[in-house]
Amino acid sequence: xxxxxxxxxxxxxxxxxxxxxxxxxxxxxxxxxxxxxxxxxxxxxxxxxxxxxxxxxxxxxxxxxxxxxxxxxxxxxxxxxxxxxxxxxxxxxxxxxxxxxxxxxxxxxxxxxxxxxxxxxxxxxxxxxxxxxxxxxxxxxxxxxxxxxxxxxxxxxxxxxxxxxxxxxxxxxxxxxxxxxxxxxxxxxxxxxxxxxxxxxxxxxxxxxxxxxxxxxxxxxxxxxxxxxxxxxxxxxxxxxxxxxxxxxxxxxxxxxxxxxxxxxxxxxxxxxxxxxxxxxxxxxxxxxxxxxxxxxxxxxxxxxxxxxxxxxxxxxxxxxxxxxxxxxxxxxxxxxxxxxxxxx
Length: 345
What we know:
Blueprint: H1 7-12, H2 17-28, H3 44-80, H4 85-123, E1 130-136, E2 141-146, E3 152-157, E4 159-163, E5 168-174, E6 179-182, E7 190-192, E8 198-202, E9 208-214, E10 226-232, H5 234-244, H6 254-265, E11 295-296, E12 301-302, H7 305-313, H8 315-318, H9 331-342
Parallel strand pairs: 1-5, 4-10
Antiparallel strand pairs: 1-2, 2-3, 5-8, 6-7, 6-9, 9-10, 11-12
């Protein structure tokens, strides 16, 4: 029979200082590593945010230790010498200082420094070299690149490509609920609010891949609403953007032509667009260059033939609650459709 913890034993248990230290260290380091590390900035704005976070952590830790020390001192003064009114008065003075005054000073100081950093970021924003519109969907990201005249150059989904050293003006909105756009290594969080356009700036200073995430709970698949920012050299970006604006030609290969016909017959074009074909839907991601993407379903699964087949056949198994319906196809039609989608590079 398993031993049970009796009240006397439970009351005698104590949290060891070493356990508290390990817990505090785990919390402090929870955002310090991995592909979404706050303290590994790749832009000037992200570096300011990282410095602010480090200052918050150091100052808050100091205030926390000081407050705990004052409270312990007040308790010892009050309860070890209860007969001396002066000791009681001194104890409550320590409680007031440690529990009210110091935390209030800390909050005012931290909020003030945060607002100051925000002002510095706003004042030091360079003129934008390009404009990118990003809309939070359910649950994916629509990305539109616009020219200086506001005309659309290219449209993609879930994978954002930016040139290194150039400032991108990012316009953020949502057509459903509130989302929050966050790339920890490049910028701070910016909310995406239905009916409103918020603006952010991304000026990466290093090439590489940076993972982003929706940082505002938006529904059942919030945790699987991710995206990636790929920062490349400026010349490579110009070539990529020109290619992304290219429409698709009707394929000559019989298998690919059959795949396009299956795509249209299954009404996939009602929700998805493939530029250069009759498919012009706007509810789902633009698939003009689907095969060039690394993932499907906003970073949920790799973009491979097998995963794509499973995603088309039963998307609810992959991402429950997604708006995409299941599509049942004959094996030969499925093979033709997968071949066609795999050619959209």
